[in-house]
Specification:
Layout (H helix, E strand, L loop, with lengths): L1 H27 L1 H5 L8 H18 L10 H10 L11 H36 L19 E8 L5 E11 L6 E11 L10 E6 L7 E10 L3
Parallel strand pairs: 3-5
Antiparallel strand pairs: 1-2, 1-4, 2-3, 4-5
Length: about 220
């Protein structure tokens, strides 16, 4: 009897061990580990992820450039968005009177500002020391200027004559007389000299772009 009972118990334990082996075996194999199902995400977590995704996309996209408006366009836009009540209709006389009042107010303010600026300038001039005279660019010339004698070849310009200076020199080596001439412009204040006159001119300060001489007197009139 005891042997029969032990045999029955062993037969009952074998199916249980086989079932336990079948339940444990898939967990130990690598294929079963790889094919394990993903964890189920609850609904609140999915909603939080869906909300974070658009925010991240907005942060990644660059901000649109702000439109730069000029002051005139900015004022025009402000006036167009103004939602105040309209003014009561006025007659042309009332409009003109309002403009005159505005002009008088601006004139008073402008006069006060100008008086204030003049007072500031006067105060600044009084507090600023007198300016020292500037030194001359060129040192003063000592002695008398050079004097030349020549023939007037043109007096077409106003208060200006063109004088030809004739020069005759003996050559140093060949002892030959070498004649040359040069022209200059001289200032004639009274237009006294005429073409063909023999005149004397003296060196002076620059009177124009080309005039550096001044007429002294007419030595001989043209025939």
């Amino acid at each position: 009897m005891a042997n029969e009972q032990d045999k029955e118990m062993s037969d009952e334990q074998q199916p249980e061990e086989a079932a336990a082996g079948q339940a444990v075996a898939p967990e130990q194999t690598p294929a079963s580990v790889e094919a394990a199902p993903e964890p189920v995400v609850e609904a609140p977590e999915r909603e939080a992820q869906a909300e974070q995704a658009p925010a991240a996309a907005r942060a990644a996209t660059p901000a649109e450039p702000v439109e730069q408006l000029s002051p005139k366009e900015r004022r025009r836009k402000t006036r167009s968005t103004h939602a105040g009540s309209a003014r009561e209709p006025r007659t042309p006389e009332e409009r003109q009177a309002e403009r005159d009042a505005t002009r008088r107010t601006k004139a008073v303010k402008r006069r006060a500002r100008r008086l204030q600026e003049r007072a500031k300038r006067a105060e600044h001039r009084a507090s600023t020391p007198a300016a020292q005279p500037l030194a001359p660019v060129h040192p003063p010339r000592e002695g008398a200027g050079r004097v030349r004698q020549g023939v007037v070849v043109s007096n077409k310009a106003d208060k200006t004559i063109t004088v030809r200076i004739d020069v005759a020199r003996r050559h140093r080596r060949y002892e030959k007389i070498v004649r040359s001439s040069s022209t200059l412009h001289a200032h004639d204040e009274s237009n006294d000299a005429h073409e063909g006159d023999v005149v004397r001119v003296i060196e002076s300060r620059p009177l124009s772009r080309t005039k550096r001489w001044r007429l002294v007197d007419v030595l001989e009139r043209a025939r």
